[in-house]
Q: What sequence folds into this?
């Protein structure tokens, strides 16, 4: 069997461009002892992957040049020499941007597709959902009756987090870019929405949306969003710093208004986190998510692009905001 | 009895100036039932007071214009109608910038001057010392063998914190301004000192002083110090944000290099705090401090200015760095 796959050709400075990527073809070997062959149905493209394309070690190492890029994918077992998996089973892997692969069965996670469609495990029921859950529940430690601001509310983590925070009994305000995304954010339950592209003064717009201030801020954007959060947080407010997508493609360091004294003056807590450091929360997450879904409180949201050859395009679309909800590539 | 005292005449924008303050004279009434009259020996001037001079409510309200400014002071009881205190006893109060006062005995804290001189209770054994202790022990949660960077190392909180962190078994690097202060910081035990006024590139200088990176940063300064801390902290590093003196006199917001993505990329934790929220740590602090002093590990450091009329000058001196250790006004 042949499989088409995406390679990274060079480490990036500034915006990702189509010529940074190459579509290649590889042979998929027949499975050896303990191995299975999987045909992917969906692959995940995520903002954090930009860091791995920079050639710099942060919390994960860089992608290897000229090899298939790693990342979350769900697929169907088509051939198996591993007793824990049989053809027709669905599995979650980190084997990335390719149509098919052969791998040891024990490196794969079998998923239950009886309640949720397989692609949910790349989104609201997977690391994306767990990321939102960890940020809200552990880092912000959001309490019933508090007010949270979710940035990038139409994104994968944002749209999950808005629904989780509502399910926890909080008031949620959200920011998103453009009227279409703002409508989407309202449709999933946000109490107030600010179109940051239309706001002259983001601080004033957030103050209008949450006149009593905010208790928690979920940071996906950075830059002027961060500044506005420090301006609008109440004393003892908390920021869960999950991502700063506005900054990832900067070739040169940007500058920002220095209102960091609010950290002192309001006794704020700001904490960066990476979901894999909080894997201990998975069981509680699955329990809560199941209960919220059973109660009809959660609506998975996805933007689907077709074809492995369009995966770089889907990835680049994350930075121009082409997705509402989780961005997926359907194989 | 008469008492001279300092009033604030107007709320400040920018640098404090002598004409913002007025020396006034008041009558000290004889003590009524349950009251005592106290002659102050030392009053404390502290950077946080700048916030109370701005007319803006942060964690404490602003000073009242045309009234004596509040603040820590130690003095001797000269007359008493309160059974818990007798003439000759020393007390700690928050009654501020004045030579003498009459107050209810139960509003005062009796201090033990048998081991430490009374002014220590305004410095290393008082809120100043507790501030350093809370930041290091609870916010940074400094572990034996880790490396901490103390900013404003020659200041009141800084010089206490350097000695506490060393006593806890950490490696301590410190920043201070000018060769004299750097010598002082070394004399109290810092393992390495950086003169930030002489450093072209503070990040590079910190990297030289701590080649393996820093685990904790104690923030008293802000601005370029904060930027350098984000650059040099190890993954999972912690910042205790106690003050940002570089910013307090800004009339207009400054700008700063935006390297905040390190908060995400290195899973950093940054927490602002105010010592009065952590009064529960007082007992543990007194226990640890007593043990460290008994072991000869702690050396109180003070800069003393004489005369209540010079209190505004002493306060302004905090911003030009005229103090090593705790700045005190002797009455």
A:
């Amino acid at each position: 069997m042949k499989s088409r796959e995406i390679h990274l050709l060079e480490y990036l400075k500034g915006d990702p461009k189509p010529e940074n990527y190459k579509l290649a073809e590889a042979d998929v070997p027949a499975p050896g002892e303990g191995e299975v062959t999987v045909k992917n149905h969906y692959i995940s493209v995520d903002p954090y992957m930009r860091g791995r394309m920079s050639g710099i070690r942060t919390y994960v190492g860089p992608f290897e040049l000229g090899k298939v890029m790693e990342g979350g994918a769900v697929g169907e077992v088509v051939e198996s020499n591993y007793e824990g998996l049989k053809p027709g089973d669905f599995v979650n892997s980190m084997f990335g941007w390719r149509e098919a692969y052969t791998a040891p069965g024990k490196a794969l996670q079998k998923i239950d597709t009886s309640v949720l469609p397989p692609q949910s495990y790349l989104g609201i029921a997977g690391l994306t959902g767990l990321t939102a859950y960890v940020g809200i529940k552990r880092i912000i430690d959001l309490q019933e009756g508090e007010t949270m601001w979710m940035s990038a509310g139409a994104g994968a983590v944002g749209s999950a987090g808005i629904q989780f925070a509502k399910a926890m009994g909080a008031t949620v305000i959200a920011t998103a870019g453009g009227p279409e995304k703002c409508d989407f954010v309202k449709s999933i339950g946000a109490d107030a929405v600010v179109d940051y592209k239309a706001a002259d003064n983001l601080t004033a717009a957030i103050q209008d949306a949450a006149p009593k201030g905010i208790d928690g801020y979920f940071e996906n954007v950075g830059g002027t969003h961060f500044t506005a959060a420090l301006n609008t947080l109440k004393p003892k407010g908390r920021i869960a710093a999950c991502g700063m997508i506005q900054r990832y493609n900067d070739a040169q360091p940007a500058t920002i208004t220095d209102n960091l004294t609010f950290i002192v003056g309001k006794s704020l807590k700001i904490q960066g986190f990476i979901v894999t450091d909080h894997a201990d929360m998975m069981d509680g997450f699955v329990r809560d998510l199941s209960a919220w879904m059973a109660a009809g409180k959660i609506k998975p949201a996805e933007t689907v692009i077709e074809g492995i050859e369009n995966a770089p395009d889907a990835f680049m679309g994350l930075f121009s905001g082409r997705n509402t909800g989780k961005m997926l590539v359907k194989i």
In short: The first strand of chain B starts at residue 2 and ends at 8. Chain B touches chain A at residues 51, 58-59, 219, 222-223, 226, 235, 241-244, 247-248, 253-274, 277 (CB under 8 Å). The two ends of chain B are 15 Å apart (CA to CA).
